[in-house]
Amino acid sequence: MKILAVLFLLAGFFFTAVAAIGVLRFPDFYTRLHASGKGDTLGIALSLIGLAIYEGFSLVSLKLMFIVIFIFLANPIGTHVLARAAFRSGVKPWTKKGE
Amino acid sequence: MNKNADKKTKINGSELLQFIVLTITLFGFWLILSGMMKTKFLIIGFGTSLVTAWFTRSLLRLPSAAGQNEAFLAFHFPYLKYLTYWLWLLGEVVKANIDVVKLVLDPKMPINPQIITFKKPMANPIAHVTLANSITLTPGTVTIDLEDGVYYVHAITDEAARSLVPEEGEGDMPRRVACLFHEQETVARGGEMS
After folding, report:
1. A89 touches B: beta carbon within 8 Å
2. Where is the signal peptide (chain A) (predicted)?
3. Which of A84, B71, B74, B152 is an S-S bond match for B60, by CB 3.0 to 4.6 Å?
4. Where is the domain boundary, B58, B73, B88?
């Protein structure tokens, strides 16, 4: 059981780290949102699921699952709000042709 | 909302049922968070849930996105189908996240960012929220704007754009969401913006 928990935690760390690398490597605001908006969601969700498995079935793990659900609902909304604010204030997306 | 508008507005679903479901949900949430089963706390929790459900009832009555005189209740949707949809989406999220990992770690970074638009008129605002959130969660696409049923989506690769707006017909995800909320199957295609 603990091995499974550690595997989940490691997967979560991996996705979060890749999201951070993506934020550094991508060329403009919108593409960076891609990296942070998704890698983070899955990374945090996997880490919390790993912690819930480590804890076993109890009130604490139930609360952790609630946090996962709320992150899954709230993170896309945050990403969308950022993207919309940038779009409306006229940030031009980077394109391959304009290189 | 004033009372005159209330009389004319057609409401989908039962408000009493929504009230009961919301109270039960809030009470269950209270139980999990408090973890105490003494009678005093149960009564306080139930009272709080009732009051909260009562005060939010007008907030949860959502006007139709199609502009008709029609309203939808926030807790009126097929729960079981919604759950299966989220399980399917979870699988998609994991699959597509691996794709983004490959993109990020690829030294050449084969990306081709583009903004695509497509029209998906649906009357229920909850359906729009579900679809927009799903698009953002599936890596490769981020919903930028949504106006009158027109979606502006930023796609990072050609593949991601095509999976949402294929050459012919309709993408898998908009179709599933529409089916979930029993919306009519219509799609008008927008051009590509660059």
Report:
1. no
2. none
3. B74
4. B73
Q: Are A61 and A52 in contact (CB under 8 A)?
A: yes
Instruction: Examine residue A93 and state whether it is found in any structural domain, yes or no.
Output: no
Whole-number pLDDT of residue B167: 63
ipTM score of complex: 0.73
Q: Is the residue at A59 inside a domain?
A: yes
CB contact under 8 A, A25 and B112: no
Distance CA A87, CA B74 (A): 28
Among B124, B120, B123, residue whose Cα is nearest residue B135: B120
User: Does the beta carbon of A93 lie under 8 angstroms from any beta carbon of chain B?
Assistant: yes
Q: In terms of residue numbers, what domain contains B48? A: 3-73
List, as one string, the DSSP characters of A3-15.
HHHHHHHHHHHHH
